[in-house]
């Protein structure tokens, strides 16, 4: 396992972070035996992370009973084996944030949170709320002064403009954001974070890039001899502004597929560079003059249709037969609030406002309608409410 400096926090953290959002379970719906099994699984997943050299766990107040399970693991494996990040909803008031900090400490059985994250600064309103005189960041700073928290961070599902504005407040030592091979839009925010010495964690890149842990044969063939999973990891880590990647394992075995290539040199090898080029070339050749470059210049849409995300899913479905992933993501649209913003294609009124803004001259309403045909299925629910 390699380690990188986590921005101005100064922590040396592993390039993989164990994202503890998939170990929780609903305690009200299990038998005693099932509960024992799920708790043992959580501790064993932490043990496997530790054995692999992972020294950072990312949890949240909103991830069900994740904090309690992390606390069990820390008790068994040793508090000093991991740096712990937990997150509190960014719009929690000053009082609620104070209460949440104490609850998080109690749930995890620790006396200091290494990194406390203002969870989900996804909009300007949330940034204002978090940083207002009665907002959560003030409570986080006071907790830092009292020694309950070591470092203050934020996470965001936003694009580069809001990320940059938030980074420039100078309030945060690390940031969690989206950036991976099929969504490169936040490259400038990663650069800004590097310039400001803010550590960068990439949020669930294997899932959001395209469920790369179960790649389609078409994508595997394009990436071969590298696996799509490894290629995406290596591509993100070839950016020196990236500190760590969140791997959301649900059990010890799920780490295994992530490990190949992780100890290689930081720059992409010639083989990996060629695989990235083939990925891009395949999209260009398959999609021809209907390829969306995910530039976001068509936004905003008056009906709030999520044009770039829908067409990103179309790109992946058409180029690599990634329809299962496309359906999973597409059917979350309309119900994701600012965590996964925008509406599905059926909200398009064909007003034409987006057309002159598209540098690729795409027939956006037609492509949206076509994507609706390919990807529409039963609505899905997000894993957690935030
Ligand atoms: S044509 Fe459809 S997608 Fe384009 S701006 Fe109008 S409503 Fe939005
Ligand atoms: S402007 Fe065109 S290329 Fe850019 S995101 Fe919108 S549809 Fe895609």
What features would you highlight for this structure?
about 375 residues; alpha/beta; TIM Barrel; two-stranded antiparallel ribbon; about 40% helix; disordered C terminus; binds iron/sulfur cluster
- Helix-strand topology string: EEEHEHEHEHHEHEHEHHHEHHHH
Helix content: 40-55%
CATH class call of the largest domain: Alpha Beta
Proper CATH architecture of the largest domain = Alpha-Beta Barrel
End-to-end Cα distance, whole Å, is 30 Å
Can you tell me the number of structural domains?
2
* Tally of alpha and pi helices: 14
Percentage of residues in strands: 5-15%
The spatial strand order of the largest sheet comes to 3-4-5-6-7-8-9-10
CATH superfamily of the largest domain: NADP-dependent oxidoreductase domain
Description:
The protein has 386 residues and is of the alpha/beta class. It folds into two domains: 3-268, TIM Barrel; 291-375, no CATH class. The protein is 41% helix and 12% strand. The protein has helices spanning 32-52, 66-77, 94-108, 124-131, 136-145, 160-167, 187-195, 205-210, 217-223, 228-237, 270-287, 307-320, 323-330, 364-375, and strands at 3-5, 12-14, 16-19, 56-58, 83-89, 113-119, 149-155, 174-177, 199-202, 244-247. An eight-stranded parallel beta barrel has the order 3-4-5-6-7-8-9-10, surrounded by four helices. A two-stranded antiparallel ribbon has the order 1-2. Helix 6 links the parallel strand 7 (149-155) and strand 8. The longest helix is centred in the N-terminal third of the chain and has 21 residues, at 32-52. It is globular, with a radius of gyration of 21 Å. Mean pLDDT is 95; it is low at 382-386.
């Amino acid at each position: 396992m390699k380690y990188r400096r986590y921005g101005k926090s100064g922590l040396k953290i592993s390039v993989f972070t164990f994202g503890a959002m998939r170990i929780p379970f609903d305690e009200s719906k299990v038998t005693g035996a099932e509960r024992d099994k799920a708790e043992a699984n959580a501790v064993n997943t932490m043990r496997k992370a530790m054995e692999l050299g992972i020294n950072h766990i990312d949890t949240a107040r909103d991830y069900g009973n994740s904090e309690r399970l992390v606390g069990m693991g820390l008790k068994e494996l040793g508090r000093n084996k991991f740096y712990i990040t937990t997150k509190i909803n960014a719009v929690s008031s000053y009082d609620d944030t104070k209460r949440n900090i104490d609850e998080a400490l109690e749930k995890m059985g620790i006396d200091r949170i290494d990194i406390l994250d203002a969870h989900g600064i996804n909009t300007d309103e949330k940034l204002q709320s978090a940083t207002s005189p009665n907002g959560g960041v003030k409570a986080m700073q006071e907790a830092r002064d009292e020694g309950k928290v070591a470092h203050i961070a934020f996470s965001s599902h936003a694009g580069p403009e809001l990320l940059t504005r938030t980074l420039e407040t100078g309030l945060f030592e690390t940031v969690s954001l989206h950036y991976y091979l099929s969504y490169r839009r936040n490259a400038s925010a990663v650069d800004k974070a590097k310039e400001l010495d803010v550590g960068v964690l990439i949020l669930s890149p294997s899932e959001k890039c395209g469920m790369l842990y179960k790649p389609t044969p078409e994508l595997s063939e394009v990436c071969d001899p590298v696996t799509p999973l490894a290629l995406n990891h290596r591509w993100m880590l070839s950016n020196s502004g990236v500190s760590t990647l969140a791997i959301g394992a649900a059990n010890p075995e799920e780490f295994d597929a992530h490990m190949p290539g992780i100890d290689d040199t930081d720059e992409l090898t010639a083989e990996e560079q060629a695989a990235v080029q083939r990925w891009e070339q395949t999209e260009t050749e398959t999609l021809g003059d209907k390829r969306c470059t995910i530039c976001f210049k068509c936004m905003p849409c008056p009906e709030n249709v999520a044009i770039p995300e829908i067409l990103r899913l179309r790109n992946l479905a058409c180029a690599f037969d990634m329809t299962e992933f496309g359906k999973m993501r597409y059917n979350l649209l309309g119900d994701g609030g600012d965590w996964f913003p925008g509406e599905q294609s059926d909200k398009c009124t064909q007003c034409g406002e987006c057309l002159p803004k598209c540098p690729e001259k795409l027939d956006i309403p037609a492509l949206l309608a076509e994507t609706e045909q390919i990807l529409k299925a039963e609505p899905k629910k997000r894993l957690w409410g935030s």
